[in-house]
TrEMBL record:
Residues 14-222 form the Aminoglycoside phosphotransferase domain. It comes from Alkalihalobacillus trypoxylicola. This is Phosphotransferase. Pfam families: APH (PF01636). It comes from the Bacteria. Keywords: Transferase. GO terms for molecular function: transferase activity. InterPro entries: Aminoglycoside_PTrfase (IPR002575), CcrZ_PhaseVar_Mediator (IPR052077), Kinase-like_dom_sf (IPR011009). SUPFAM superfamilies: Protein kinase-like (PK-like).
Length: 260
């Protein structure tokens, strides 16, 4: 990695699950490097959703390395996810025609509820997961599948954990780590935010800042997607042999199924 940066640059891993992110520094100059980052990083940068893209280079082995401006800041705390600026940035992302157009041009089709359910079935078979909480969760998704309809699809981040929101020292908010982004019903992202971080009595006011009313259809869709994402998270933890986390999520899954 240091070879193509030139003399004087020092590169160190930036952490993360993939191990593909690095921090490069030369004196006071610092940049964030990512190997094989999201192909629509340029659009995200142009719209101010992620820190500015500085350059892109292709290595001899075919890997693509991107460099972004390093920003001094911090991750959002859980309690800060209820802020207006989070709702505003999420609305900007879901309303971006440029982002959606770019995503579709590289061959991404909308991830419909039917496809989500089929994918979950395949993964559950692969990992041989068929206990009672999972069965109840899958039955819930199957029984309500025909009611989960939306006429609006957008680019969804699909991993809106508060650790992926960066607030700079200049009070600019970014949403990073777009490797798992999909085209889907925005209710997928919204459900994950509201169920994870916002008190239910504040859902309407948060969504008002986003630009939506909390109607029955939106509530049903958000709940459906949260159930599906919870099952997906169980599968992910089982795949990593993190059974304590998986079992806790199964308890959460039963709460979601029985308290709708």
């Amino acid at each position: 990695m240091e070879m193509f940066l030139g003399d004087g640059w020092k590169v160190k891993p930036a952490g993360g699950i993939t191990g593909e992110a690095y921090i490069a520094q030369q004196g006071d100059q610092k940049v964030f490097l990512k190997r094989n980052s999201s192909p629509f990083l340029a659009v995200l940068s142009a719209e101010g959703i992620v820190p500015k893209l500085l350059w892109t280079k292709r290595l001899e082995n075919g890997d693509v390395v991107t460099a972004q401006r390093w920003v001094e800041g911090r991750e959002l705390k859980s309690k800060e996810m209820n802020q207006i600026r989070v709702a505003k940035l999420m609305s900007k992302i879901h309303g971006s025609y440029e982002l959606l157009d770019m995503f579709k041009r590289i061959g991404n089709e909308p991830l419909t509820p039917k496809v989500i359910l089929e994918n979950l079935r395949l993964q559950l078979q692969l990992f041989n997961i068929d206990d009672d909480p999972i069965k109840k969760g899958m039955d819930f998704l199957d029984e309500r599948l025909d009611d989960i309809k939306s006429d609006h699809y957008a680019v969804c981040h699909a991993d809106i954990n508060h650790n992926n929101w960066i607030l700079t020292e200049e009070e600019q908010l970014f949403l990073i780590d777009w490797d798992g982004a999909i085209v889907a019903d925005p209710a997928l992202d919204l459900g994950l935010i509201l169920y994870s971080y916002i008190e239910k009595e504040n859902w309407s006011s948060w969504l008002e800042q986003y630009g939506l009313e909390l109607g029955d259809s939106l509530q049903e869709r958000m709940h459906w997607y949260v159930v599906s994402q919870t099952i997906a998270s169980v599968i992910w933890h089982v795949g990593r042999k993190e059974f304590t986390q998986a079992n806790q999520l199964k308890n959460d899954l039963l709460d979601l199924v029985y308290h709708f």
